[in-house]
Specification:
- The complex is a heterodimer of chains A (1020) and B (425).
- Chain A has 32 helices and 42 strands.
- By secondary structure, chain A is an alpha/beta fold.
- In chain A, strands 6-5-17-16-15-7-8 form a seven-stranded mixed sheet, with helices on both faces. Chain A has a six-stranded mixed barrel with strand order 21-26-23-25-24-29. A four-stranded parallel sheet of chain A has the order 12-11-10-13.
- The radius of gyration of chain B is 37 Å and the shape is elongated.
- The relative contact order of chain B is 0.05.
- The chains are: A alpha/beta (1020), B mainly alpha (425).
- Chains A and B meet through β1 and α30 of A and α14, β3, α16, α19 and α21 of B.
- β1 of chain A pairs antiparallel with β3 (328-329) of chain B, so a sheet runs across the interface.
Chain lengths: 1020, 425
Amino acid sequence: MDSNKKYWKGLEELNRTPEFVEKNKNEFAEPIPIEEVLSGSGLSSKTPRRDFLKALGFGVGAVTLAACQKVPVHKSIPYLIKPEEVTPGVANYYTSSYEGQAILVKTREGRPIKVEGNPNDLFSKGGLSAQAQASVLDLYDINRLQGPRIKGVEAGWEETDAYIKKELAAVAASGKGIRLVTSTVYSPSTLAVIAEFTAKYPTTKHINYDTVSYTGIIQANQNSFGKAVLPHYNFDKADVIVSFGADFLGTWISGEEFTRQYVSNRNSKSLANKKMSRHIQFETGMSMTGTNADARITTKPSEIGVALINLYNAIAGTTLPGSKATGSKKVDTAIMLAAKELVAAKGKALVVSGSNDVATQVLVNAINSLLGSYGTTIDLDNPSKQYAGNDAAFVEFVNEVKRGDVGAVLFLNANPAYDYYKADEFKAALKNVRLSVSFADHADETALLATVNAPNHHYLESWGDANAVEGYYTVIQPAINPVYNTRQAEHSLLAWMENPIKDYYTYVRKTWDSGLLAKGGLSGQKGWEALLQAGMVVATPAAAGAYSFSLDLAGVTQKILTQSKAVAADGDKFELQLYVSQAIGDGKRGNNPWLQELPDPVSKVTWDNFAAMSISDMKKLKLEEGDVIKIDANGYSVELPVLAQPGQTQGTLSVAVGYGRTNAGPVGNNVGKNAFPFFSLSNGTFQTAAVATFKSAGYKSPLAQTQTHHSYEGRSVIREATFVEYKKNPAAGSGNEHGRKDYNAESLWDNHDRPVYDWVMAIDLNACTGCGACVVACSAENNIPVVGKDEVSRRREMHWIRIDRYYSYNDHGNSEEAVTKEKEIDKLDNFDNVSVVHQPMLCQHCDHAPCETVCPVLATVHSSEGLNHMAYNRCVGTRYCANNCPFKVRRFNWFNYWNDARFDNYLQGEHTQLVLNPDVVTRFRGVMEKCSMCIQRIQAGKLKAKIEKRPLKDGEIKMACQQTCSANAIVFGNRNDPNSEVSKALASERTYYVLEELNVQPGIGYQTKVRNIIETEAQA
Amino acid sequence: MRSFSLILKQFSRSVLLIAGFAFWSLSNAYAQTDAAKGEAIFKSKCTTCHKIESRLIGPALGPQLTEETDDKYLIQWIQNNQALIAAKNPKALKIYNEYNQSGMTVFADLSDADVGNIITYVRNTWKEDQAKPAAGAAAPDAKVESGPSDMVVFGLIGIIVIAFIVILVLNRVVGSLERILLKNKDLVIEDEVTADGAVAVDAKKEFIAKILKNKKLVFFILVAGTVAMCSWGWVSLWNTNVHQGYQPVQPIKYSHELHAGIMKIDCQYCHSGAYKSKNASIPSLNVCMNCHKVVKTESEEIHKIYDALGYDPKTQKYDSTQAKPIQWVRIHNLPDLAYFNHSQHVKVGGIKCQQCHGPVQEMKEVYQYSPLTMKWCIQCHKRTEVNGKGNAYYDSILAAHDKIKKGEKVTAAVLGGIECGKCHY
């Protein structure tokens, strides 16, 4: 039985707009611009005869000359003295750490080319975020500062040191303050350096400044339990999760870790045990976490506080003074139901809130305390150290600067001139400071204003350590010599305080020798070497204590209500919600083209930010997608294009921060608009909601949105079931409820022999959260070019793996109301209540591949291992294969992306190309490419087994996408081995194949999406 | 009696004579073996660290052992220098400190006689060297290229032979053609015979005109010409970018013939990557220095290595600021689009280097032996049986194929070795 539920990727697909139909008619939205090319190269009919003859003569001469050189001379330059551990052609892996997470750095001939997760990592056990995957590209960014500068003039390090020491001494003598502004430092060694620096210059104060801060949670814990910490959450221990605007699978605190925990209660393994957690999300804009929720209730920012009060009332059975209904019947009903579920799951429940408001977080603490979450799902005794920023402390710092009390400021990994909400005020004030030093590795907004730039190393060039969670210590070791004349910030600080320890490596060693190594039972040189091997030390965690909340909530409630009122919009005003983008984050990596081209998990927009608005609001206001509006809030205004976002709360706008950099570098400059100035300060913390007015700016700015680029034209490719249905019949919704159909009974094609290996993949739709880390990992592994905004909007993005995001109306199994293909959709008009499925889509390596049969030159053929090979040098670019591919996974090289000035900013240039994987060829103009199933990894894995004279082990070969997936949604292996993980996964009743009815026999099996929907679901 | 004493006398005389002879010959023999034995021991035990004429790791032994005349001390030192140092012998301490307190290897296994032999050998050699200081310098390296290389000689001979054969054949052809003409065209020949020179020229013209009129012949020549041109074109097009025989001039005149052929150094000693990597890799210079710190230190070519490393053979110190890499010219240029892995072929397949690289051990200068075309790869993959014996990796694979192939030869191609994606990705 095919599902009769209607899935759609975008409104244009749903409504079949003429433009969409036109563009979607052909595989390629635009024809080859032959005319343009010809007229561009001076071959048009207007060419004068003499010019033609000149060109002809030169051409003949050049060709003759070129042909004379019989063999192009290639130089081969060996090492003078080869390091013992380097074998040219063999990759070395070094342990290191990215933002506190243990990683492995893959280097070839001494240059890092890829970052991979450390399988023993405490957070995600080998998974890695898109940012971490992309971080290796920053190393080769030619726009990094290449040496120290004093007042914009290049200087040597000695000169810089002398200058700074002189200035610091002068500042110290004057009695003025020295301030060290950093994003949260959780490195024990760095903290020790800062402590010593403070001892040397006693007027120094260290300020942790987080762009997106968690001050609210930290202070709430201080108020509630006397512990100013960010707790360590255990989503794996939670059966019921209720989140109020916390994007915990994406950008909230520790997304990769929470993804692993969260999915462990929802993946195949858990389902096989008939166990699945329940996740309810109250949120304004649609976040990635919201797309994964079992129930998602659209809530205005002003309603969230009130809803939390009601939730507390419902759980505690009391009525806090000032309690009222939220004004949304749907929210109120949902809160009552959520409370019931939470109480039923006492001790296995978790409530989180993305708010940075102290009062709100105190109330959340109270609720969690009632639910018995402390000691189970929330751990206050092994707290997270990832964020320790104090918003008020930073605001106070700015005031000090304004008053002229500060003589010197040092910025480490902090860029307040861009991301402070009153950046202009800060910039003006910074002029009062005698010495300002920026350690930034780019000439960013703050570095431009600083008197001295002392560029820090990239983390892959650095020594260091991290302690992201209590008891978890990771080490950072360099994988390459410094590329430029940079110096590690800690080294600079040591030099400026004239510390007897001259280099930071010795300092790190000292820190580890004096205590940290012992935590892992290690000691001495051997212990240090063992640490560098393992990359981490895990101390025995303290027992998570139960904490009970005992404060009076009356004051808290009052504060929440006042705060809610402040962001409540009346009349024709809108409530503005600011969020952190999954790909770009807080904007620090704005110059990274891999991240800019990664489609946002929800909107699928690349290279831009936008104002997300609900569809009914847009209809009311007669706005169309791409119309630019001028948004006014908190005394600041920007012009942004509108995006029609299903699931957006009516009366709200959502805008991502992290865009609109002016000094990120050529890639990130002026991409989108800066939304940080919309922040406000209230009760000592930064607030991410505001009341906004807007008007049309009168022009359009089309968004490069990939959502409908590869349309299936309404064919059923998504299968889903509810958890209740699943429990009755595990095959529910998969289309195989009554046994598998044999579509191969009458086949046009012969079957291929696959005597030994049959490489296939299984993708669990219930595990995939849609984060997009796989897309970046694939780009890094397979040398996939970046094409830029203009080309993406022409549907020419090159990603081999994409994540298709499908919306569907919620019918919740109520077949009477189900939207079927036959029914008129417009009548329903319920875009607020949609559910989402993410489907990673890549070459399916069909056994009866339609692309193979149409290739006139046999450039794409089948292998005896079940793979669909693509020989680039055979391809003549007919593009028949792409036209014939039902999955739309083939990509055409419209340009020589690696050697074309138009793509200069991305991956072009000898220096940037050092990041290329030398085992994979780069493709040239005019050929097709597609997922190769990381064939270089398969071949390398087989070769390793051959050399070691042993059979290949299951799980030994991992695809790049699979390796980076914190959710373990992707399993790869040999189908011929019945005991392999993938065979077991494919044997699951939930498995279905996309477009199986075409009998193309895809090699990738998907497992149905299961939603834990309860029949009494809140329906407004 | 008399006769007896005579006999005795004669006997004793003869005995004495024999004994004397024996002694003389023995002592002579002893003296001879003395230095020879010493040389053998010196070469096996001492040359790692010492040279006679110059300093290596240890001091130059020639002057050292000539200046130091106390053989007893020398024997003690050589047998166990550590004991002397421990006993704080002033001479021993002096030299110990001079050489940064890096003690000499202890040779407890050498007898006093052995050490004496070494000393004798060293002193003799040093004396000889001193006696002819100019001779050595005057005699340059005898290995001067003597005339053209074998290739040229054989080539010339070949060309001469071919030319001779061609002339022979042509003569015969001309002869037989003339005979045919004589037979068929009696009249013309008569004319020719009777006419003078001018007539003969006319006749030649007429002859050409006749041949041109012979449509069959003209057609035949045209067809043959076209076929020849086409096949030449075809072959040369197929060989575009095929650089078989490519033999560029290298920055150092390194001879594989000497190293791999005469010295029989294993290929993997220098090309150590071949066993474990896709690249066989050109050895880094520290590999050269393993031997050439000692061997042929005076050679101009070896000094290129020293220069590249910033190495001073006199002080034996490296100055990395002077280092500059050697830019070898790559001979085997496989295009980027093809992935080739040495370890797969050498380590797993057990293929000899020479199979693809030709008789490297006979090459003074290396040239590209194989065409390195895809056809060449595929041919080999189709012919070569998979070397899977004793490799557990192949056990199940070969078993699986045996089922399908029913005992036929399992070649690399059968295991998918000619599928596009195996090399192109």
